[in-house]
Every structure is written in C-alpha cells, then in structure tokens.
Amino acid sequence: MPISRMKVPAVLSAALALTACGGSDNTIEEQTQADADDISGVLLPAADRMVYLNLETGQIVTEEDSWHIAANRMAFKLNSGASGEGKVGGALAVAQDDFYNANGEPDPNVFTNATANSEEEHLRGPFSEPESWQQDAFSSAFGGSDNWSEYNMTNGVIEAKAEVAYLVRSAEGNSYARMKVKDFNFPTRGGQGIESFTFEFYVQPEGASGFSTTPVSFIPPADYSGGDACYDFDAPAVVDCQGDSNWDVKVGFSGREWYLKSNSGVSGPGKGGASDPMTWAEADALQKDPGISQLYLTDSTGGVFSEHLWQAYNLTGEHKIWPNFRTYLIKADVEDSGSTVWALQIIGYYTEAGESGNPTVRWLPVTTR
Fold first, then answer.
1. Distance (Å, rounded) from C-alpha 164 to C-alpha 181?
2. pLDDT band for position 139 (50/70/90)?
3. Residue 287 confidence (pLDDT) above 50
4. 233 and 171 Cβ atoms separated by less than 8 Å
5. pLDDT at position 341, please?
6. According to the model, what pLDDT value does residue 37 have?
7. How many whole angstroms separate alpha carbon 111 and alpha carbon 322?
8. Are 332 and 309 in contact (CB under 8 A)?
9. CA–CA separation, 278 and 5 (whole Å)
10. Which of 198, 1, 204, 257 lies closest to 104 in space, CA to CA?
11. Furthest C-alpha separation in the chain
C-alpha cells in the first residue's frame, strides 16, 4: 500500500468536492430501491451533525436513546467501546477486493459501473460467523501509529518511518504547519516508554501567507518520563498537556499503545486536526495551507468502518465520492449469542439535490453460521 490513501492533489480535489454540489449517477430513490420488503434503507442527514440510527426500528434517534450506528458526514461509528455505552459489534463480511487493483488503489472502472442493484446480492449473503466482533476504539487524526512508525524486529525498537509528513491545524484553528516525523525512539524491551522523538514544524502563523522556511522542533522536555508530551507550534514550546488548552500535537504512550493526537474531537477542546499522511516531498511542495477545512481530520472514535473504508474519492475527475458497497455485519450485543445480526451497506453520500454529507444506508437481518 502507498504511504497515504491518496496523493496530495487527490486529497485536495476530494476536499473541494465536499464543499460543492455533486452526486452519484444513481438517485437516492434508485439507491434505496429493494427487490423485497426485507431490506430497510434510510438517508442520514449528517452533513453538520452526528446522526444516530436504531437498526431494529429503522428510526433516527438521539444519543440518549437506543442506537446501533451513527454517522457524521463520511465517518461512521458503533455504539460500543470508545464510541458509546452499548455492546454493538461489527465485522467486515464482503471486502469488495475486485474494486481495487493489486496495489490497493481504487479501480475507477469498477466503481463507476457498480450500482446499488448490482451489489445487492452481497447484502443477502450467506454469511459465516466472524472470528471476532470489533468494537470501537480511539481513532487519531494522524491515523494509526503504523502510518508514521514501524517496529524494528532486530533490536525491538519502534522507530520513525522515513519521510512521513502531515499538514496540521492548530488548536486555535487559525494557524497551520507542515509536520515532518523526523525521529522516534521507543525501546519496547526496556519497559520505560518512549525514550526520544523529534517532530519538525514549518509554521504558517495566523495571517501569514505561507509556511516558514525554518523549522521549529518538538523534542522531549527535560523531565519527560516516556508518556504524554504536548507541543504548541505557535509558541513554539512544549506545554502542559493538562494545564494548557492550546497544545497542538500530543505524542504519548499508554498501555500498549503509542500515538499522535491533535487538539480536536475526543482528544481536546481545540479546533485542531491533521491531514492524511503524505511523503515529505509532497508536503514540501505545498507552500501554504490549501485553505480547505475538510482536508483536516479530527480525533474521533472508530472501528470496522474506519479500518475498512466504504468509499473512494475523485475517481474520474468529477470530484465525487463513490461507494464500494462493502457489506458489514452489525451485531446488536456481542455478549448475547442470540442477539440480532444485520448485514449493512453504505450506498450513497448525496441527496437527490446533490448535497454532500448525507450518506444512505441499507440493511436487513441475517443469520450467520
């Protein structure tokens, strides 16, 4: 797989699409049409809020009610783990591998020729019982740690991947930086946590016309003990993660996880965020923040939906989002062997008027064996 899910020009084009009208060649009416009454379908008005859905009743509900899945624009989550108090589990049932080439890149011809009707057969099974049911966990704007670090089996040290970079938005939401992952040293056999790290930032302060040509560096403070450390790239300085609400990037280690976090979403009160990972050459080619807010992801919770994406961007130069019609299994209660299991597909992203951020889902109860 390439270092990022899409190259920088594609990222920017896709983000532009989110601010414009557009839509699939299939209307919502066509997308939700079923051959039998056992398939339920609904458009979720999630363009500017989190929308909660009860799959048993087919009703959009509030967070305080009983719900199984929720959506906010492209992001989906389950009512479990880090996302909710429920016990909902998910699993990927049909991966749609034929929608992707040998390098893992989307095949535009397959995507654009697929329709809700042609892919309905995958929703109907049959399905085997998954080896395990996945519940939601923390999802960083920077992605999983394997995006920017790797394990050296020879010496047991987790190290920085070469030439990985991000665009980062500050907690205040009005300044930006190109961030390079320059060094990371986590000796896992020592039991002391992270030993050292260096992240370089080329900062575009509020009101500036471009990124600076001289970097500032985030390195461990003198009293660092291997856990969390926070940095304000505008200051620029290491700051107290608890006492300073204006930190921009947090690096840390807790339990068995090492991570990068942005001051956003579930991680902090700020307006921060980060782009998909890219090579440093791609980041260095950008002289200023592109000015597209949708480029910046925020810290959130996720699981089967974030690990197995349901869509692809800008496949034909039309700046649209195309579903891959992957089929997911959703179990109402992973602790109850007799609880309901649904097969579910996400089949669209637009209203009939072409307004983005409004995904359409369809599902039906199924039996696994």
1. 6
2. confident
3. yes
4. no
5. 98
6. 66
7. 7
8. no
9. 9
10. 1
11. 66
CB contact at 8 A, 347 and 31: yes
Cβ neighbors of 155 (< 8 A, separation 6 or more) are 187
DSSP code of residue 335:
T
Half-sphere exposure of 159 (CA within 13 A, CB side): 10
More confident site: 289 or 297: 289
**Which among 262, 320, 270 is positioned nearest to 141, based on CA atoms?**
262
When pLDDT is averaged across residues 258-265 and rounded to a whole number, the result is 94
- Count the alpha carbons within 13 Å of 168 in the hemisphere toward its beta carbon: 34
The residues, ordered by sequence, that sit 6+ positions from 255 with a Cβ below 8 Å of its Cβ are: none
User: Rounded distance, CA 244 to CA 220, Å?
Assistant: 17
Provide DSSP, 45-87. --SSS-EEEETTTTEEE-TTS--SEEEETTEEEESSTTT-SS-
Of residues 124 and 11, more confidently modeled: 124
The residues facing 184 across adjacent strands are 197
39 confidence band (pLDDT: 50, 70, 90): very high
CA 124/CA 35 separation, integer angstroms: 11
Alpha-carbon distance values, 320 to 111, 216, 262, 312, 350 (Å)? 11, 37, 27, 9, 10
Write the DSSP symbol of residue 97: G
The pLDDT > 90 percentage for the chain reads: 73
Cβ contacts of 33-39, under 8 Å, gap ≥ 24 = 33/116, 33/117, 34/120, 34/362, 35/120, 38/364, 38/365, 39/120, 39/123, 39/362, 39/363, 39/364
Mean pLDDT, to the nearest integer, of 192-208?
95
CA 260/CA 249 separation, integer angstroms: 7
CB 233 within 8 A of CB 218: yes
d(CA 262, CA 218): 14
> In this model, does residue 21 exceed pLDDT 60?
no
Instruction: With a cut of 90, say whether residue 23 has pLDDT above it.
Output: no
For 70, list phi and psi in degrees, rounded to 5. -140, 155
Query: Are 165 and 179 contacting, i.e. CB atoms less than 8 angstroms apart?
Result: yes
Predicted pLDDT of residue 181: 97
Q: What is the pTM of this model?
A: 0.65
Residues 6+ apart with CB under 8 A from 146: none
DSSP letters for 301-315: EESHHHHS-SEEE-S
